[in-house]
Amino acid sequence: MITLDRLVNVVGGYGVAARLGEVSRSTELRSVVVPEAVTGDVLLALGASSLAEALRWAADAHATVVLARCDPPDADTALPDGIAVLLVDPALPWSELAAVVYGLVLEGRETESGRGPTDLFALADSLAAAIGGAVVIEDRHSQTLAYSRMQQDADDARVQTILRRQQPAELQAALAGRGVFAHLAESGEPLFLAPDPDLGMTGRMVVAARVGRELLGSVWVSCPAELPGAARAALTDGARVVALHLLRSRASADLERQVESDSVLRLLDGSAEAATVASRVGLPPGLLRVIAMRARLEPDRHTALLVAFEQATAGFGWSRPGRSALADNTLYTVLPGEQVDAARQWLAALRAALPERTTVLAGISGPAEAAELAAARREADECLALHETDAADAAPPAYDEAWDALVLRRLRAAADAGRGPSRGPVAELLRHDAVHGTPYVTTLRVWLAAQGDPARAGAELGVHENTVRYRLRKMAEVATVEVDDPGKRLAMMIELAALERE
């Protein structure tokens, strides 16, 4: 059953304000009603002319929660004990809100998007008891969703799969080589895998959990020999139940993810009501950071990003620190906190939950208020682009640490777009070096970096300081190199920095 806490979390994204009074957020909700001669846990007060009327209807229906469209009560107005009030934004159609509330409450089971897949674990236990072997339930990406308490015929491969929350890479590769995943993608029939001591596997019976032609997951049973008729039938029937559970879980999770994504994208686009939107999705007041992330897993380049989005938005909304959204090929997450280490730790935890061999690239904005998140998004995008040019194992850059490298990238982008000067001292020295093989541009760059010290520049170049002075004099014969003018020195340093490759 869903709880009041989860209902408030979801409908809050639609502009519904909560006055819970003494009603516990852990209150379970099982039914939805409208003003009729019936009772239920959640009342949609359609047509109520006032909050008082809506509350009378709720009391008559023995409801725990009432959703009403009326003027909000004063802060000191006493509300009846035992009824939580959710005030509906006048701009929100009842038809849309009713669909959301009915979808949540009547789903009837809490999912991974709520309090965890407790009923999926219970289902694994029931299957194990019916079949007589240890059971593991996995999603379509071979990540562990649930497993039975029974350990009969359990082996090292099962233990490693449970501990890592996914199949070990070597086991996954071996199963792929045997055509196991191809079988699961195409067939609903159970498949027996013979024992393989090299993989630490005593034997497996596996069947796809699918709805129609869509593969949602798989059910694995530890067994040294192929299951006989009754056990095989129990496995096949159990896989259908697992598939229905996964379908319900995904539908519920998708609803909450959509609400969250819409709100996050509004923040990143520069919403005029940024503070209100941030509060609705549960982001605390204070400084925030935006993380822009891309994930790749060959050969399907899009799968890893979708899995990352599912992981980033998995878990009960109020218990997760960040709020996430997908935009094109990038996952954006708004994370509370000023410290960049917290953002990198969040990324590391997300990376650990992804399939092995996944490449993760990310950029982190500087700290920002809710109203500044549009600018923070641009900072995160630039840092992501910077990380894509770095080594894959380098730490994700943060804007407040890497702003200098980003400034140089902007200058290089301008130069590459043809917006760099085609005339002037640097351009003329470049042409001279290209024709005559002289090292004037390199010498000028090092001399400027040494702040005009010929001894330091000579040491850097591996020549005597008098050689540096000689080259500077020769440069003046080729181009108008006014090294005594501070403004022109700065301009030449900027132009040289733009020309220097990373």
Automatic annotation (TrEMBL):
Family of this protein: Belongs to the CdaR family.
Domain CdaR GGDEF-like: 273-385
InterPro entries referenced in this protein's UniProt entry, alphabetically: CdaR-like_regulators, CdaR_GGDEF, PucR_C-HTH_dom, PucR_C-HTH_sf
Membrane spanning residue stretches: none
Name listed for the protein in its UniProt record: DNA-binding transcriptional regulator, PucR family
Pfam families: GGDEF_2, HTH_30
Domain PucR C-terminal helix-turn-helix: 441-497
